[in-house]
Amino acid sequence: TGNNIWYSPQGGGPDYPRNAAGVPSYKESEATYKLPWLKGGGQAAMDGPVYRYDENSASTVKWPQYWDGKWFVGDLYDDTQPRHAVLMDPKTQGDGGLPIHAESLKKIIPVGENGIRNLMDWKFG
After folding, report:
1. Which residues contact 81 (CB under 8 A, 6 or more apart)?
2. Count of CB atoms situated within 10 Å of the CB of 121
3. Residue 33's beta-bridge partner residues?
4. How many C-beta neighbours within 10 Å does residue 59 have?
5. CA-CA distance, 3 to 73, in Å (whole number)?
């Protein structure tokens, strides 16, 4: 299984040119960023849950159906780093395919201890 999201000190999912032996150059000036929306420069990309909408739930805090199937990921270095909801292509997600869509969560979820900082422990509606 390939990695869908990978990280580096500068973030962004860099891809480097490789020499004849297949070794990447690791020169930042030669990098192509496959995930430019995840450039935070913190510790590491961490995954959170995939939201599953339940139309039968009577919860008053459940999210709209729009968010169904979106995977929450972010750089958990601090509360100012990128946090996104991403959508994967089911055909490539098991083979290291990149997200096909990413949108920032910063405008809808507050930062800090009770907000966007704690992706891995989120519980929904």
Report:
1. 40, 42, 74, 75
2. 8
3. 14
4. 9
5. 13
> Angle 81-65-92 (CA atoms, 0-180°, nearest 5)?
65
Give the C-alpha separation, 101 to 104, whole Å.
10
Residue 41 in this model has a pLDDT that exceeds 70 = no
Token digits of residue 95: 């083979």
The full set of domain ranges for the chain reads 9-37, 40-121
pLDDT digits (tens, 9 = 90+) for 49-106: 888 999 999 998 888 999 999 988 876 666 666 678 889 999 998 898 999 998 888 7
CA-based diameter of the chain, in Å?
Answer: 59
Two tokens, residue 114 = 């009770």
Residue tagged 């780093």 (tokens) = 81
pTM metric for this prediction: 0.71
Percent of the chain having pLDDT more than 70? 74
